[in-house]
Amino acid sequence: RFQRRVRACRYDIDQFTPNFLSIFDSLVPSEEEIAKQNQLVIALSRLINKEWPNSKLYLYGSCANSFGFSNSDIDLCLSIDDKEMSKVDIILKLADILQAGNLQNIQALTRARVPIVKLMDLDTGLSCDICVNNLLAVVNTKLLRDYAQIDQRLRQLAFIVKHWAKSRRVNETYQGTLSSYSYVIMCIHLLQLRRILPCLQEMEATCYVTVDDNHYAYFDQVDKLSNYGAHNNETLSSLLWAFFHYWAYQHDYTQDVISIRTGKIISKHMKDWTRRVGNDRHLICIEDPFETSHDLGRVVDKFSIKILREEFERAANILQYDPNPSVKLFEPY
Ligand code: CTP
Ligand code: MG
């Protein structure tokens, strides 16, 4: 009977795709907003380059990886090669340099795990965080953006998953749930397994970067891959069903690590992620594509794993049985 229900639902579920697509459309930032973001980067770069002519300011995170919602804060990274100054000194001096701009609430948070300068720009009304020399984040931002260009279903799926995670409050790393970055990686992985996306890091490299003496390479000529997923015609709602069904009922939390670097599921055993080391518990394992010793699920603890899995099950059941899933899924927690 269960089998029959599953089949019946998988057949019907496509009817909800237009509803999910209109939610997607409502979350996408406007051209005007993107122009404002770029205007802010140019204005801040001018100020900073006066003092540090060889530095460069990069946009990273959701504003640059194409998975950003409208009205999100801006993540910036200052790349600067100054052996004399510590990161904290750079942050303090940066806050000082920025006093010359039309900015408000400039704060240097030097004791945070990642030291940043926070500010609000009065010309554009945008808030942003600036970190220093976090270049791997700039590289992983490009990887995510490149994946998004191959098949539009990735961006649609990840927007809906992020919107669900924010509505259900399971997108709060300080509460032990997952980052937006982790959710996007989970979506990429699902689409790799369904052959809608390739594995760019396993293909012949066309893009090379070195960060802190480590070399990274992958295939980035994604305009050549625009037909890659064409043989698979699953719709957005069917992929959403598959996403939640996978994390609710199929993922083996005791053995498996998802890895977009290899496009496969690999074993916890192989990564030596089978026991708790310090604060890293490995209760849900998501390999970072570049910092491969990083489990993006390490923030999850024995309480939040329960909440997370209950939310995956709730979402899977809504997509399976609810007559109005595009409303119910996002009901505030
Ligand atoms: N990042 C990372 N490693 C993590 C978390 C984040 O390298 N464990 C970097 C990624 O480059 C990511 C950026 O920090 O794109 C911002 O992370 P996050 O706030 O999770 O994602 P956003 O895409 O900015 O999402 P949101 O819309 O929620 O702001
Ligand atoms: Mg962000």
Describe the structure.
This protein has 333 residues and is α+β, with helices and mostly antiparallel strands. It is 44% helix and 15% strand. The chain is built from 12 helices and 10 strands. It has a 5-stranded mixed beta sheet with strand order 1-2-5-4-3, sandwiched between helices. A hairpin with a 5-residue loop joins strand 4 and strand 5. 37% of the residues are buried. Bound molecules: cytidine-5'-triphosphate and magnesium ion. Cytidine-5'-triphosphate (CTP) binds at residues 60-62, 65, 67-69, 72, 75, 137, 140-141, 179-181, 296.
Notable traits:
alpha+beta, Beta Polymerase, domain 2, 2 domains, five-stranded mixed beta sheet, three-stranded mixed beta sheet, 12 helices, 15% strand, binds cytidine-5'-triphosphate, binds magnesium ion
Blueprint (SSEs and pairs):
Layout: H1 2-12, H2 17-27, H3 31-51, E1 56-60, H4 62-65, E2 74-79, H5 87-97, E3 103-109, E4 116-121, E5 127-132, H6 135-150, H7 152-167, H8 180-193, E6 207-211, E7 214-218, H9 236-250, E8 256-259, E9 264-267, H10 268-271, E10 285-287, H11 304-321, H12 325-328
Parallel strand pairs: 2-5, 8-10
Antiparallel strand pairs: 1-2, 3-4, 4-5, 6-7, 8-9
Bound molecules: cytidine-5'-triphosphate and magnesium ion.
Cytidine-5'-triphosphate is lined by residues 60-62, 65, 67-69, 72, 75, 137, 140-141, 179-181, 296.
Task: Summarize the structure in short.
This protein is α+β, with helices and mostly antiparallel strands and 333 residues long. Helices cover 44% and strands 15% of the residues. The chain has helices spanning 2-12, 17-27, 31-51, 62-65, 87-97, 135-150, 152-167, 180-193, 236-250, 268-271, 304-321, 325-328; strands spanning 56-60, 74-79, 103-109, 116-121, 127-132, 207-211, 214-218, 256-259, 264-267, 285-287.
